[in-house]
Design a protein that fits this description.
Layout: H1 2-12, H2 16-21, H3 26-35, H4 45-48, H5 51-54, H6 60-82, H7 87-90, H8 100-107, H9 110-125, H10 131-140, H11 148-159, H12 163-169
Length: 170
Amino acid sequence: MDYLRNHALHFGVLPKEKSITINPTFFTKGKDSVIENNPVPAIDIEKYLEFDTKGIPVTWNEFSERVSRKNIECLLGMIKNYGYLSNKRVRLYSNDDFNAVSVYINAAPKEYKKDLWEVVKKEYKIGNMDEGEYLINEYMLGKGPRDFELFLRKYKRRTGKDLQIILDKQ
């Protein structure tokens, strides 16, 4: 999921004038650079992204949208089966201080946002995410203050932690 997300995001953050000139069809450039360089050969990217039933994305935008949809569907399935992948649980396998699940939630297509909000509320209520993670997801899903500075102040007031310091480390 993360490998594909990184490739999808890479082309989404380029300056507009650059992205136009390097926006070749996915089939001619993406297949070589993304699929054949897959760092986890046990995972079939073509199958994961449903090339057989939905076709091969033609542009990087189509590729990015397909990755976002499949990743959020996969994430929802993992949460349904195992509960929210909290920082505490992720830190058992990684030293990462940043909530990666929130990054996926933020990148989710709009039609998933309502379902994600229901999942976030439920998982918080049963104790599978802490206050900080809840606030980050609330912000990512557009349920908290939209002004980032207000959000940071709310986060610090409610958790006692300065999220800006964590973000600066990233």
